[in-house]
Amino acid sequence: MAQHNAFYAQSGGVTAVINASACGVIQACRRHPDRIGKVYAGHNGIIGALTEDLIDVSQESEETIAALRHTPGGAFGSCRYKLKDIESHRAHYERLIEVFKAHDIRYFFYNGGGDSADTCLKVSQLSEKLGYPLTAIHVPKTVDNDLPITDNSPGFGSVAKYIATSTLETSLDIASMCATSTKVFVLEVMGRHAGWIAAAGALAGQGEDEPPHLVIFPEVHFDRARVMARVEESVKTYGYCVIVISEGARYEDGTFLADAGNTDAFGHRQLGGVAPTLAGMVKQDLGYKYHWAVADYLQRAARHLASRTDVEQAYAVGEKAVELAIAGRNAMMPAIKRVSDSPYEWRIEAAALAEVANREKFMPREFIREDGFGITAACRQYLSPLIQGEDFPPFENGLPKVAHLKRARVTRKLTEFTI
């Protein structure tokens, strides 16, 4: 078989372990020099391919690539840029193929969430129409854990561990001060449509009498009167109330509690802070002193508290992506298959992108407690293995040691393209 080059890019919001997937892809490519020549990374995701802004990963040392495994963020730059349907955005897709032809790229690895899976599928379809041999593989990641087919999404386990830990630690803080100070603490977590991260906060307590006293999911319609009644009951019973709320909490009519009135580059509603909104309700309705926090980027950047399970899975899907590509498995995604809960065992299987793209996985009703304010035993059984184990990064001068890349650019061969 002839040798050709590979392209790798990161898309959407990054995670604590997306670079572990990059490490898996790059190291696996380097193990097949007979099939894969150079690996080019798109600077700032798919935009790097469109603008022919390519990073020559071969210029990076083995040591630097290995360090990606414990480096958060997106090492090559990510982006929120969605390619629309082929008909209306055909020039963009043709530009991608043009760039790939110019640099002899026959392998396309796109590391992202649901929108990235859709883009990857469309690129594979157009390459077939244009007669250009390109193997496109989607490398899964998303802290939201909303990708279908795969048991869980790389990136989620580490966020779940961080949120569960933060909920536990802040609960101890509030409990120690509630007699004379703060009565209610609200922690806002990510999750626009699916409440997986909010559910992870519930791992901090083992029963209804332990914090968090309320978990508010996007899947359960927000009822202000019911929520305030439960808050008041918790304060009267325990002296305080800890709430974990998803940014996507919404009313029965579908309106977000914190709709900022804008949309992002993917067309998603821009949310403007549900924690202060809920805290304001508590103050207005009950008069309790409160504090709130928004985990925001902290939850997805906390590589120092990553789940070892998550790190291993993120690396494994990157590695498997290359195996699938070399085997000619076009338009596929390496998916995590849970073999057993106890002991926890998993393996990587191939999933067709046609079954992944434009689909979301929500919290099943059997994972949400009957009253809508917590998780069930089945949910705990699902979540617990995903936060197991620690994979601490090396430290230097008291801080985590991270990879520092050269990001050497590849010489452009084509005319400029405006996106």
Automatic annotation (TrEMBL):
UniProt keyword Transferase present: yes
Q: What EC number(s) does this enzyme carry?
A: 2.7.1.90
Site label Important for catalytic activity, positions: K141
Keyword Iron-sulfur included in the entry's annotation: no
Domain of life (superkingdom) = Bacteria
Residues noted as binding substrate in the record, renumbered to the chain: T142, V143, D144, M190, G191, R192, E247, Y297, L298, Q299, R300
Q: Where is the signal peptide?
A: none
Give residue ranges for domain Phosphofructokinase.
9-324
Function summary = Catalyzes the phosphorylation of D-fructose 6-phosphate, the first committing step of glycolysis. Uses inorganic phosphate (PPi) as phosphoryl donor instead of ATP like common ATP-dependent phosphofructokinases (ATP-PFKs), which renders the reaction reversible, and can thus function both in glycolysis and gluconeogenesis. Consistently, PPi-PFK can replace the enzymes of both the forward (ATP-PFK) and reverse (fructose-bisphosphatase (FBPase)) reactions.
Name of the molecule in the record: Pyrophosphate--fructose 6-phosphate 1-phosphotransferase
Gene symbol here is: pfp
